[in-house]
Amino acid sequence: MPCDYKNTKPIIAMKDIKKEFSGVWALSGITFEVYPGEIHCLVGENGAGKSTLMKVLSGAYTPTEGTITVDGKEYSKFDPFLSKQLGINIVYQENDLVPSMDVVENIFVGNEKTKGLGIIDYPAMRKETQRQMDDLGIHLKLDTKIENLSVSDQQFVKILKALSVQPRVLIMDEPTSMFNVEDAAKVTELTRRIASMGIGIIYISHFLNEVVEIADRITVIRDGAVISTFSNENHDTPIIKITQDMVGRPIDMFYDREKCPIGDVMLEVKDLQLTKDSPKINFTVHKGEIVGFSGMVGSGRTEMMRAMIGADSRYGGHIYINGKEVQIKDPNDSINAGIAFITEDRQKLGLMLHASVLENATIIGLREKIKGFFVNIKKFPPLIEPLLKELRVKTPSVWTEAVYLSGGNQQKVVLAKWLYAEQDIYIFDEPTRGIDVNAKAEFYKQMSNLTKQGKCILMISSDMPELISMSDRVLVVRDGRIDCELKGEQINEQEIIKRALGVNKDG
């Protein structure tokens, strides 16, 4: 519902918020507010201060300076208990669900309904969950364990969990980053329904088309300060203006990749089968080529790659590199064969979160360079610092634990790890998901450099501009098989989505 800012008081008003970490100002005087029923989108590069600001609001961080006013009462600091007590809740980008619990248990964990003698009233929780899903148009099987749900359905559970405590302000951090086009549309519609209940929403997203479509207002922050706030009542704020304010210069939506000559076949996958009854998968990738893999969530793109590199078991198939068959039974065999896998789940699978940036970036590449039993790690920084500088990794030092970096900088460290390893075949699984437009350009530059060196890239992506601008060919995956190959002018958004959905040429 439209917000009448002149005649309505904000639920929350943050004023001159500053946050210092070891002499570095992560926030340098931010003023920000959210009104009842408003969708206020917060955008900025990774490391701009979005997450820090939200951690101040959710009570995880105490501001160095500034105040937060809720319902006319001023606070100089929050803690998580007070924040929730005042009606502020957050849907985190990273997964915070319990895999072995079902949908209902996850929604009410720590906030269970009880009956006499403190016994948990599961039927009441189930009834309440079903009512809430009906109101919001969400369809899930309540007794399904989280580990058996798709990534998109898990996100719906996270939203339901946040709403179960009846918040007045809901922070949604990259809510559609794991979704395909269809499911992302469901989330944006769900967000509108939540706002129509009078709940104020702070919506953080790097998908600027989505931001313009959904926001009542858009605030851009850069280097810990507010750069601009746009009124977006007509949903017509120019994206080019938003990106320019985010990074300090205009950025084209499509990366202008410099194509290079395509060489001989480097990788051939022949009759790959995940199970006895699954379809056989065949494809080739040439030197200097980027082959995009498109498909809806659950189509089998990532499963295909994980089976290929030995991370998951497979029933059969052959893998040839430069014409020679290689035996890959586990990820170690894959690494030794010259294959790099840049995973989409950087926190769970790509990083050792409580190890330093240095350790994460060198763990693969130094395997062949270390001689002897004893290692003097202090000699390693000069080996990796030039690459971190080239990738513009924002970190206090190479000794900083990866857990303290922003999501985009964590992703850059994962990339640095594999670039330093100097592999021949690079698999990028959603390489730029959840990172800002400037960081995307850095990734694309590195990918282009790899192809110029005669290496080849397999790129799984749900980002249409990325697929269209970066791919030499696109293989559309549907129901665990390669449905078709698109080349040249066939690589367009309409054709990719049509084939991913299984619509025939006449459909």
Written overview of the protein:
With about 500 residues, the protein is α/β, with parallel strands linked by helices. It contains 17 helices and 20 strands. It has helices at about 50-55, 80-85, 105-110, 120-135, 150-165, 180-195, 210-215, 240-245, 300-310, 330-335, 345-350, 355-360, 380-390, 405-420, 435-450, 465-470, 495-500; strands at about 10-20, 25-35, 40-45, 65-70, 75, 90, 170-175, 200-205, 215-220, 225-230, 265-275, 280-285, 290-295, 315-320, 325, 340, 425-430, 455-460, 475-480, 480-485. It has a six-stranded mixed sheet, with helices on both faces. The longest helix has 16 residues, at about 180-195. It is globular, with a radius of gyration of 24 Å. The model has no long low-confidence stretch (mean pLDDT about 85).
The overall pLDDT, averaged over residues, is 86
User: What would you call the structural class?
Assistant: alpha/beta
Query: Strand order across the biggest sheet?
Result: 6-7-8-3-9-10
Estimated share of beta-strand residues: 15-25%
